[in-house]
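[agent] plan:
  1. take the single chain provided in the ticket
  2. run structure prediction with default settings
  3. attach structure tokens to the ticket
  4. add a short note for the reviewer (M.T.)
[agent] executing step 1
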Amino acid sequence: MAYRGGFNEAWIAPGLDAELKDIQPITLMCGQRHVFTVTAKTPAGTDEAIFKSVWPGFQICAVGILRYRDGNGISRHTGFFRVLDDEGVNFVVSEHDSEMEYQD
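[agent] step 2 finished; step 3 output follows
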């Protein structure tokens, strides 16, 4: 997760940590989901963080890739690039970053 903004939509410090992270392997059945916690590198309650979260032109982004093996043993990749909606409730596909969403 990261902030971006400004005329060039640059990543705001501390930026996007795009290094791959290992998660404990799990097996999901159809319809199940797995939730894991993401921790911010900077405190969310700072004046700067509050400013960024409400100022027009700044976005909170959730970016990632999932690699998994399906029930048939086929390895698959799914990438996502989502932005927090205007209500601050849901992460939705960014209109001009939709090419970042993929699956194979």
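[agent] step 4 note for reviewer: Residues 2-103 form one domain.
[agent] ticket updated
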